Amino acid sequence: GEAIKAGDTIMTIDPRLAQAQLDQAQATLARDRAQQTNAFRDVSRYKPLAQKEFVSRQQLDTSTTTAQASSASVKADEAAVESAKVTLSFFTIKSPIDGRIGYVTQKIGNDIKASDVSLATINQIKPIYVSFPLPQADLPAVRQAMAKGPVMVKALPVGDSNKPQEGRLTFFENSIDSSTGTILM
After folding, report:
1. What band does 148 get if pLDDT is binned at 50, 70 and 90?
2. Do residues 93 and 67 lie in contact, with contact meaning Cβ atoms separated by under 8 Å?
């Protein structure tokens, strides 16, 4: 029943494996960046030496290729780090909406998997949507009113003695319930 805001953390799933994968990807990236820096230093050293023919053109070409390969490795590592960050984010469940948290289906220690239906229920309070039946005979008047602009409605929950709450009609079902002769609004 606690009030929550969109973005509030409502549950954390054990993130140790995903965190370890992120740490590994970041370490690989750091190593490959160091190797890239060294490879480009070699290219810088070999260029003037190759022009003076102190080293072979092949050595310069090899160091240039090594530097380019190092750059590609760094790009791949950056993608792996980003992927690991996304995966890690899946282990923190945040509320997508403002509302009240209801029943939590999973408890500490439960095993969960991607196909589990829900972890918790969040009920949106503002705005709240109310459904009600309307006799089918009133549908032409509702359509006519909606054509002129927003249709205001009042709702009073059963057992509530307060004043009715005002709202705006936003939807009506496109079929009539033949058992009751009503349309869902």
Report:
1. very high
2. no
Q: How far apart are CA 153 and CA 166, in angstroms?
A: 6
CA distance 125 to 2: 12
Around Cβ 39, how many Cβ atoms within 10 Å? 21
Nearest to 155 by CA among 129, 182, 184: 129
Q: Supply 165's token pair.
A: 């709450």
Extended beta strands in 47-128, E state: 92-94, 99-104, 120-123
C-alpha closest to that of 70 among 48, 42, 39, 112:
39
Confidence tier at 77 by pLDDT (50, 70, 90): very high
Highest mean pLDDT among 22-31, 45-54, 102-111: 22-31
| Dist CA 158 CA 169 (whole Å) | 19
